Amino acid sequence: MKYAFSTLGVPGMPVPDVVRLAVDCGYQGVELRAHPEEPVHPGLVAHERRAVAEEFARAGVEILTVAGYARVAQAGDDEPVYEELHQLLYLAADLGASYVRVFPGGGDQDPAEADATAARRLGVAAEIGADLGVRILVETHDSHRTGADVARIVGAVGHKHVGALWDVMHPWTAGEAPAATHAVLAPYLGYVQVKDIASAEDGTPLPLGAGVLPLAECLAPLGGEGWACWEYEKRWYPDAADLPPLLAAGREHLARLV
Question: From CA 60, how far away is CA 77, in angstroms rounded?
Answer without folding.
Answer: 41
